[in-house]
Amino acid sequence: MVKKPGRSGVLFDVDGTLVDSTYLHTLAWSRALAGSGEWAPMNEIHRLIGTGGDEFTRRLLGHPDPSLNQLQIERYLELQSEARLFLELGSSSSTCIATEST
Fold this sequence. Notes:
CATH architecture of the domain at 22-82: Orthogonal Bundle
Shape: elongated
Structural class: mainly alpha
Helix content: 40-55%
Oligomer: single chain
Mean pLDDT: 80
CATH class of the domain at 22-82: Mainly Alpha
Largest sheet: none
Distance between the termini: 48 Å
Strand content: under 5%
């Protein structure tokens, strides 16, 4: 039996082409807001995904709230295992590790 060397590497997804995390971020922000007694419509949250944390809360709530940034990160990490590679499509050989800064 001849063993073929495996291929390994690191691939960075900087613009959402491999892992679409927009909806996970939207849900994480919604849960972070709920956890702090705030609320905003999901469509408004979704529209602002990609905006920096302090600017995000200022535009969404009318005031900056740095404590929400940490809550959002915690909620996102809880959801992170639900991220899937676009290329995965049922393949058991690919692994997705979605880490992002917000």
